[in-house]
């Protein structure tokens, strides 16, 4: 009884029997896998945030009149606009063309839709867990600003949000008037991918009205 | 007392160990649960991607995505198109000596209840001279006229606006053409016939011919058509709702088996080689061969086995000892003589001389488009090439995707050690990322140090050529090549042959195509032969007595072992006698050959072949000359004279008759049609009513009626068709739907799973500690 105590604290991996070795090995594998998964998850988030810094730089250069530039040499897209929600203090650089790659780096303007502020409905989509995590906080009546690559800033006023299927969303890109639809996945805090989308419709505030309304708000 | 104490302690220990066992069991169960949930995640993810993929393929496409001929209708999705159900394709290739004339006939149907404008997109071999377009729309026949591109477009747009049927054939890339057809009525059937010719390719005594019929993978950001209501009183609305549970309907276009059946291709080659034939092979397709005489073969595809997923290739060799080493052909068109000559220089006399030292820069593309068999073939080819280097050679390996690695940072001796290191590196390459070819090319051409005395600098480029900045790359090769020769190796079943042929031409090297794993050894062996034998350089052709206005190609490319000089020329007047003199040099040894022009055999199509190569030469000079307009004018002049479609000329056809009144019923399938003289669409009229199940007939004709009907139905669902001919053109421009992309990342899920797994691992470790502790205490 006294002997093991004099040997001090038991070593974790010293003289394990077969069963224990198996458990230890399994634990190690599971632990590593877990580390990998968590790392991958955090990597996605970090990439999304870091990319925005580079994109902001690229967009500033574009505004300065250097033409559409690639944010980094191997990027397969260009910046299109900056979207911001002043009340809740969020903004992000919007990329042109929505695909898996652009969406990983920022909100994406669907290239098949008109430019924000042009006749029709422009659609901007982003991931619910990164760039559009704030979309749920936008209330009806909030202002949403879109600064386009040509330097013009368009102000939209948010309407009611709604939920619909991704392929039956009722967005009419050739609609009369100037609209903006912001889309992200729904439900917001689900970890599953699904067919449902949260769509926030907004319509353009005509420039003169916006100018008049700005000091008041 | 003591024993009691001991007993109690033992009991406690037993309890402890049993609770430890419980913890272990729980941990194990949790592990299983975690693994299970992981598996379902991946399966879910996989299922999700699979659904998207199938929907994409069965659904919408863009013209650039097409790699086989297809008629595209505007879809409800802006900028996207729906493939018209292809009823039948017939390809008739007539090879006559060095020239192949190809006639492609395809039959399509407008399955919708409205009027549409169709866009027919098709790839052709990159040296093809397209000169004929015929079309049958319903019961109308239209033949194309050659016009300058802008003028042709205007004629077409005017006709379209008037509601007339019209067709416009334009060249998008030298190997991609589009043919637009305006005002196709509901249910109407269209037959398109295109004719082109090309020179038979020859190398190392082997003659070959390719016909592209590949559907390349399409990169589409998941478009599906949805139901959208028109608003704003545009006068027409699309009433069709999207097909319910679309993802459950088996997408017939995706399945290669069904693909072959619903798009049956019949292909026949009438091979008149002009010399006694030896082996005739079709490496990718099963064919039936008949042998009318020693110089002729009739080749037909076995109807049941036509996977339309790779190019058709036919190769032939002369009977032993009968391989022609020279040929001279002529055609007289509009008072001018056109010549085509080929000479294979004798096997190099330098065989006994010590081979020149080589400095080889290997450049391998490991971008995402190469993934799958392509990268495997590229790795195998490159490993073979590296192991084939001689001890005195020097080499380097550069790989690129959107990044690049210069493996040795400069040329190194081809020692066994270096070769092994390079091969190990190449074997470990995986395909991923974008294609940024220019930096790699620059590194290969500029950064490898000066060429050693008496050495041959060679750049071997392995890629599928999936790039868009061809001009920039040609400019780089042309301007910075120095003494280097650029060899391109095309990998995969459908590489961008235009880019690779041109790049090799600018680089004064050759283009090798590797289409499958089992071609690697043979084709690379052929290339090694060329690499190791000094090229025949300074090739020039002159006409003794007769003056040649124009000899193509200009300048003459270098030759490699086994390759013939192939030139075409325009002579100022017909029936000129005289001699054609071709000179060149192999190393220090001059070579010359003379041919009498009056010995030339008459062959059709040489004038067009010349014109096509002349246009190529002019296009190539565009990368050097700073006057694009002058070049455009020259190209236009040549193309107009020879009735060829080019970058600046198009074929346009307008129907003179007024469009059928919209209320009149269509009767096209019931009325037997009389075909005008010289029109042979019969081949694609195997089945008059393909939608009805045909009771008998060959396998081609007995299309799976249900499947075809389904395809037609699905296509009709996705099409944006207009109620009248006039609105069809409006609709082609206008569409209203949009689909939202997937906007959830797996980040949260992965973090959750990751944390859970780490927790489980921690629990297991904790339990182990407990267990050890209890064992130690137990003694």
From TrEMBL, chain A:
Keywords: Hydrolase, Membrane, Transmembrane, Transmembrane helix. SUPFAM superfamilies: Sortase. Pfam families: Sortase. InterPro entries: Sortase (IPR005754), Sortase_D_1 (IPR041999), Sortase_dom-sf (IPR023365), Sortase_proteobact_type (IPR022445). The keyword Transmembrane applies. The keyword Hydrolase applies. One of its GO terms (molecular function) is hydrolase activity. The chain crosses the membrane at residues 21-43. NCBIfam families: marine_sortase. This is Class GN sortase. The lineage of its organism: Bacteria, Pseudomonadati, Pseudomonadota, Alphaproteobacteria, Hyphomicrobiales.
Automatic annotation (TrEMBL), chain B:
It holds the Pfam family VWA_3. The keyword Transport does not apply. It comes from the Bacteria. SUPFAM superfamilies: vWA-like (SSF53300). CDD domains: vWA_interalpha_trypsin_inhibitor. The keyword Secreted does not apply. Residues 70-198 form the VIT domain. Keywords: Membrane, Transmembrane, Transmembrane helix. The chain crosses the membrane at residues 20-39, 751-770. NCBIfam families: marine_srt_targ. This is Marine proteobacterial sortase target protein. The lineage of its organism: Bacteria, Pseudomonadati, Pseudomonadota, Alphaproteobacteria, Hyphomicrobiales.
């Amino acid at each position: 009884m006294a002997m093991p105590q004099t040997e001090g604290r038991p070593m974790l991996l010293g003289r394990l029997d077969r069963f224990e070795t198996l458990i230890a090995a399994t634990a190690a594998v599971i632990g590593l896998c877990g580390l990998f998964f968590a790392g991958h998850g955090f990597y996605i988030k970090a990439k999304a945030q870091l990319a925005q810094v580079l994109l902001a730089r690229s967009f500033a250069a574009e505004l300065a009149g250097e033409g559409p530039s690639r944010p980094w040499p191997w990027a397969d897209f260009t910046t299109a606009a900056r979207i911001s929600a002043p009340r809740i203090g969020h903004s992000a650089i919007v990329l042109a063309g929505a695909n898996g790659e652009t969406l990983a780096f920022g909100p994406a303007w669907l290239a098949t839709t008109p430019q924000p502020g042009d006749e029709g409905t422009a659609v901007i989509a982003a991931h619910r867990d990164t760039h559009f995590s704030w979309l749920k906080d936008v209330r009806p009546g909030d202002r949403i600003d879109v600064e386009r690559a040509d330097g013009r800033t368009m102000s939209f006023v948010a309407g009611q949000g709604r939920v619909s299927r991704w392929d039956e969303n009722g967005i009419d890109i050739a609609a009369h008037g100037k609209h903006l639809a912001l889309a992200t996945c729904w439900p917001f805090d689900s970890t599953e991918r699904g067919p449902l989308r949260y769509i926030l419709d907004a319509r353009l505030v005509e420039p003169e009205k916006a100018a008049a309304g700005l000091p008041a708000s | 007392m003591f024993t009691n104490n001991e007993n109690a302690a033992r009991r406690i220990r037993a309890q402890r160990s049993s609770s430890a066992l419980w913890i272990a069991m729980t941990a194990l169960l949790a592990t299983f649960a975690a693994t299970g949930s992981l598996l379902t995640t991946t399966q879910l993810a996989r299922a999700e991607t699979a659904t998207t993929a199938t929907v994409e393929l069965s659904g919408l496409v863009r013209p650039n995505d097409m790699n086989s001929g297809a008629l595209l209708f505007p879809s409800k999705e802006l900028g996207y198109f729906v493939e018209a159900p292809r009823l039948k394709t017939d390809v008739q290739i007539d090879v006559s000596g060095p020239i192949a004339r190809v006639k492609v006939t395809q039959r399509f149907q407008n399955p919708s209840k409205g009027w549409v404008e169709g866009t027919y997109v098709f790839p052709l071999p990159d040296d093809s001279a397209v000169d004929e377009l015929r079309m049958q729309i319903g019961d109308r026949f239209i033949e194309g006229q050659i016009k300058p591109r802008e003028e042709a477009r205007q004629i077409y747009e005017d006709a379209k606006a008037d509601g007339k049927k019209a067709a416009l054939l334009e060249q998008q890339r030298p190997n991609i053409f589009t043919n637009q057809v305006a005002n196709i009525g509901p249910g109407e059937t269209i037959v398109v016939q295109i004719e082109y010719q090309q020179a038979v390719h020859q190398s190392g005594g082997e003659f070959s011919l390719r016909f592209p019929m590949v559907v390349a993978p399409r990169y589409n950001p998941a478009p599906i058509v949805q139901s959208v209501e028109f608003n704003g009183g545009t006068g027409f609305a699309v009433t069709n709702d999207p097909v319910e549970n679309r993802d459950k309907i088996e997408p017939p276009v995706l399945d290669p088996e069904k693909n072959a059946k619903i798009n049956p291709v019949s292909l026949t080659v009438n091979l008149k080689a002009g010399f006694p034939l030896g082996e005739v092979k079709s490496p990718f397709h099963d064919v039936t061969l008949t042998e009318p005489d020693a110089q002729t073969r009739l080749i037909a595809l076995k109807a049941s086995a036509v996977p339309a997923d790779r190019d058709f290739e036919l190769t032939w060799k002369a009977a032993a000892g009968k391989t022609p080493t020279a040929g001279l052909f002529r055609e007289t068109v509009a008072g001018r003589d056109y010549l085509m000559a080929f000479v294979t220089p004798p096997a190099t006399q330098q065989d006994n001389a010590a081979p020149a030292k080589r400095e080889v820069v290997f450049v391998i593309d490991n971008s995402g488009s190469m993934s799958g068999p392509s990268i495997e073939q590229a790795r195998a080819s490159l490993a073979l090439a590296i192991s084939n280097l001689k001890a005195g050679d020097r080499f380097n390996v550069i790989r690129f995707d959107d990044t690049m690695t210069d493996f040795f940072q400069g040329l190194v001796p081809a020692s066994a050690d270096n070769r092994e290191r390079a091969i190990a590196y190449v074997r470990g390459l995986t395909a991923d990322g974008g294609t940024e070819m220019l930096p790699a090319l620059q590194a290969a051409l500029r950064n490898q140090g000066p060429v050693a005395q008496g050495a041959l600098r060679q750049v071997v480029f392995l890629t599928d050529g999936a790039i868009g900045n061809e001009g920039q790359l040609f400019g780089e090769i042309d301007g910075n090549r120095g003494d280097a020769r650029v060899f391109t190796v095309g990998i995969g079943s459908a590489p961008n042959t235009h880019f690779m042929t041109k790049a090799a031409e600018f680089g004064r090297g050759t283009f090798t195509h590797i289409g499958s794993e089992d071609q690697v050894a043979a084709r690379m062996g052929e290339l090694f032969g060329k690499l190791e034998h000094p090229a025949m350089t300074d090739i020039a052709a002159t006409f003794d007595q007769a003056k040649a206005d124009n000899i193509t190609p200009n300048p003459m490319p270098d030759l490699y072992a086994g390759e013939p000089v192939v030139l075409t020329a325009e002579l100022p007047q017909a029936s000129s006698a005289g001699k054609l003199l071709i000179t060149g040099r192999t190393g220090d040894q001059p070579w010359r050959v003379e041919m009498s022009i009056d010995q030339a055999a008459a062959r059709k199509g040489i004038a067009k072949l010349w014109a096509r190569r002349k246009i190529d030469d002019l296009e190539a000079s565009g990368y050097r000359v700073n006057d694009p307009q002058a070049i455009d004018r020259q190209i236009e002049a040549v193309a107009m004279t020879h009735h060829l479609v080019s970058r600046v000329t198009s074929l346009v056809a307008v129907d003179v008759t007024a469009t059928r009144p919209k209320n009149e019923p269509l009767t096209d399938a019931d009325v037997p049609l009389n075909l005008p003289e010289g029109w042979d669409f019969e081949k694609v009229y195997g089945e008059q009513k393909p939608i009805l199940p045909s009771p008998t007939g060959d396998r081609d004709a007995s299309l799976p009626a249900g499947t075809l009907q389904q395809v037609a139905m699905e296509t009709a669902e996705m099409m944006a068709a207009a109620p009248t001919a006039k609105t069809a053109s409006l609709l082609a421009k206008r569409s209203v739907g949009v689909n939202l992309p997937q906007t959830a990342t797996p980040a949260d899920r992965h973090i959750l799973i990751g944390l859970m797994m780490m927790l489980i691992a921690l629990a297991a470790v904790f339990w182990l500690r407990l267990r050890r502790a209890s064992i130690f205490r137990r003694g």
